[in-house]
Each structure stands twice: as C-alpha cells, then as structure tokens.
User: Fold these one by one.
Assistant:
Number 1:
Amino acid sequence: GTLIRHPGRFRMKALVHQMELVGVNSLAIIGLMSFLVGIVIAQQGAVQLRQFGAEIYTVNLVGRLTLRELGVLMTAIMVAGRSGSAFAAQIGTMKLTEEVDAMRTIGVSPMESLVMPRILATMIMMPLLGFYSAIVGIIGGAFLSSLTLGIPFFTFLARIQEVVPLHDVWVGITKAPVFGLIVALAGCYQGMQVKNNAEEVGARTTAAVVMAIFTVIVLDAFFAVFFTNIGWG
C-alpha cells in the first residue's frame, strides 16, 4: 500500500536484478529440463497410442500437455527449488546477521527493499518462463517424433497450431503469475522467520521449497477443475 501511494520509493534496480536472477539465469536449466520432458512425453505417448494405430495424436498429447499443464508446473517447481530456496537463504542470513534490523533502524523498509522486488520479479518472469518451457518441450517432442515416428520436425510444429486451442495457452499463462506469487511468498516468509542460528536457515530454506511445491501442485489441481467447469477442459 505504501508503494502504491509513493511509487517513487519503489526499487527498480532491485526488481531488474531479481528478474535477471529468477528469469535469465534459469533459462538453461529450464530449457534442458523441458526438452527432456517433451521427449519423454512423446516417447511414452507414442508407445501407448501405437496400440490403437493413433501415433499421429502424439502431437495433440505433447502440445496440449506442455502448453496447458507441464510447462508452467515444471517451471514453478524448478523456480521454487532454485529461486525460492535462494530467497529464504538470503533473507534468513540477513536476519541472522541483523542486517534486517539495521535496515529498519536507518529507516529502510525490508518489505520494500527485500520482499517486494523478489515477489514482483517472480510474478513477472513466471509467465515468460512457463511459455518458454512449453515451447522447448514441444520442440523436444518434435525432435523425438522426427526420429522414431516418421513425423517430420516442421510438420509436427505446424500441426501443433491446428490441434492446440488458444485457450490452452491462456490457461498456462493465467496460472503462471499465481504460481510465481506462491513461490516468492513462501521463500520470503520462511526467510523472515529465521531467528536463532545457522541451522534454522537450512531448515527454513527446506520448508520454503516444500511449502511452495506442495501449494503449487494443490493449486494446479484446483485450476484444472475450475477451467474444466468453465468449458476450457
């Protein structure tokens, strides 16, 4: 509320720095994970669909599953393990060394300087990372299909545009900032709870990751039911 009333107090440099840490520095690991997940989905889907002579529907399976569910979900899990844990460890260490108390003493709000940039950066980057993850997953599926199913790489990508409805893309993008909020809140909250010793930093970091992943999976199940009920199933 204070930042809304006084937008000049917002730390833009801190936001950009956190966006780099959460987003840009995660591209490599998220891309590799998504590519391999796309390959696994295509391979396992093709094995099952081959029994019915329907290998061509592997395109539908990979496209809808990555854009709608797995792209953003796997990204959220990776961001929770990578950035959520970092938030908890960084803020927890600052609490332990009394840097947070020193900031309050000199009139700097820890919420404005530490928490808000991390939350906003995660919420902004999650839709981009989720979409990036889905695209790389589709490329992974297309790569495997061109090798084992006889579906040319670019034919696979062209068919994705035909079989994946646009609302599947919006489902993934809608869920992404909510997942980002959960991950960042869990990391910052657990970091702020550190009080006693270095061992508690480790415990709170673990708790942040577990809390974020559990909540994200529960919310994903809720979103699945919700979007099905409104006809976006």
Number 2:
Amino acid sequence: MIIPAFDFLDGKAVRLYQGNYLNKKFYDINLYERFIDYKKKGVKIIHLVDLSGTKNIANKQLSFFKDIIYCTQIPIQIGGGIRTEKDINTFFELGVKRVILGSSAITNKNAVKKWLKIYGSNKIVLALDINIINNIKKIAINGWLKETNSTLEEIIDFFSSENLKHVLCTDISKDGTLSGPNIILYEEIVKKFKHIKFQASGGVSKLSDIIALKKTGVNSVIIGRSLLEKKFTIKEALECWPNE
C-alpha cells in the first residue's frame, strides 16, 4: 500500500537529506487539512517520525504527536527514539496502530524479541536502515549517526523466530534524494524473506518508481518528500497501487 510519511523536528515538518541533520528542509503544511484529504482519498495508514526524539531521547515530541493522533481517523505508525517498554506503551495509549523500533533492534535485541512476543508481530515494525558497502547491508542506528557491524539479513533472521512480520528497509543513500529507489535491493530481500511484509523507503520521485516498487513484491512504499513537494498527488500515487 501507499504510506505517506511526515518527519518532524521541533514541531515542524522536515526532510533530511540522507539522514543528515545539517542538511534539512522545512515544509509549511496544514497537517490536519492534509490528513482529512488523505482520509477521503483512501489512505490506510500514515508514517510519522520523531526526529527530535531520534537524535535525543530526552526531546521526544509527545504532546505534539498526541494532538496529531487525536485529530486524525487514519491509523498511525510512529518511530523515533522508542527505546523502552514505557515508550511503546505511551504510544499505544495515545492510539497508534504500530510502533517502529530501529536502534533498539540492534542495541537491545533480547528486549525487542520480548516485545514482539508481548505486543504481537502486527504491532511492531523494525526499521532497518542500511548503508550498502561492497554489497554488504550494514545497519546504521541513532538517527543514522552510528554504523554497526550488524547486517540486514542477520537481524531479520534473529527476529524471525518471534514471527517478525513488518520490516521498514531504507537504503540511506537514497533517503530524501528523489533519485529513485533501490529496486535491486527490494527484489533481493523480498525473494529471500518471503514471510516479511517489507515497507520500502527512500528515493521515490515519480509515479514510475511506485510501479517499479510494486513489481518487486514489497508490501508497501513510504513516500515523504515527493508528496510534500508535489511531484505527484496522493490520488495518483494510490492509483499506482490498486486493490490495496
């Protein structure tokens, strides 16, 4: 399906270029009007990211997100600085559909395994953001500021024992660039991990990118900057993913 994405830094909609906090662009949008329009058009879920919380877990924008979640009828998945069971419970109590765990899946693997068991695989998305070096998919964490030695395949294998279902995979080199998605990456991982519902993220700039991603077999495509900059409309994007 099509999942519109909004990243927020200090209460403002923003896009980073390849995750770089020094290379950012803010957008002046009426979020509530946009959500109403998306609901009418048939959007099934919206992706929100707390970039303030990602950079510093002490700076979570909880009251800001509480207002957003309260004012929309579209299910929300949210990520950014979610590190503890308390964080997860807080967002579920606010009414989100799914929480997104990134850094914790690497730094606190056993806890994340436990949370998959407690909350169920439909309620948790693992965000596995990668730098591809010599075809090795190395995961980066902490707002992509720290590279790890963990690979995408290792982490999916580790959590598959707890019925991992949802994985958001971003090729960091593509994020926020409008340079086109990494089609080869998604073809490869969809073929390898047939039990995973992959969410593709990064690089979408035109409708043909969406069509190409659908052909890879990914479950969803997350679209941020191209919708914010009106490269195409949400209606046109949804029409590229019929019968969702």
